[in-house]
Amino acid sequence: MPEDWRRALAVVAHPDDLEYGCSAAIAAWTDAGREVAYVLATRGEAGIDTLAPAECGPLREREQRASAAVVGVCEVEFLGHRDGVVEYGTALRRDIAAAIRRHRPELVVTINHRDTWGGTAWNTPDHVAVGRATLDAAADAGNRWIFPDLAEQGLQPWDGVRWVAVAGSPVPTHAVDATPGLERAVRSLLEHRTYITALTDEDPETYCREFLTGYARTVGARFGGRPAVSFELFGR
What we know:
Keywords: Zinc. The protein is an alpha/beta fold. The protein has helices spanning 23-31, 53-70, 90-103, 125-140, 149-152, 182-190, 193-199, 204-220, and strands at 7-12, 35-40, 76-78, 107-111, 116-117, 121-122, 163-167, 174-177, 228-235. Strand 1, helix 1 and strand 2 form a beta-alpha-beta unit.
């Protein structure tokens, strides 16, 4: 992965999207003194069957902020789109372009925007919409004639995005060594305890550790044998 950057912005659909495999890389980046901020399209309010959205949304927002802090991320924003029914389109592109203009990153991170996870599991519409919109918004953010109202609000064009890195891509091109950040990645995912408890009957810590270490080993087999986090990197 490129290393000549100072600021990154991670844009995903839901709380826990980054923690399922990407946060070990984020921990390594913040350790190196780089700034990383999170933007989430939704609060994940439709993600737990036993909790009504009005109760679930604030709870998952709190868990996400705690999760981000574990890997050195202090800024976490929520765009307020409805969980489960995020629509790709100009409204979503505008919100993400505005976030890019606010944070002015050189690297933008999102997750798999394709129809499937490796051709074996169907991806969710929210992931597809947010991933695609993020790729588009990286260019929108630098064009003063797209969403000109943003400049009127003080958000001047930012054409400084040099790469968009897609985590969880079925066709990864780059990887980050997961070893230094793996333990914090486990603790970061564990902060989503309410969601995990609803998801599995396993002990939450055992579940988080086995999932993330297994994922990092599988990825590492393609990238030199060390546990890793993989990305498909798009340059601009």
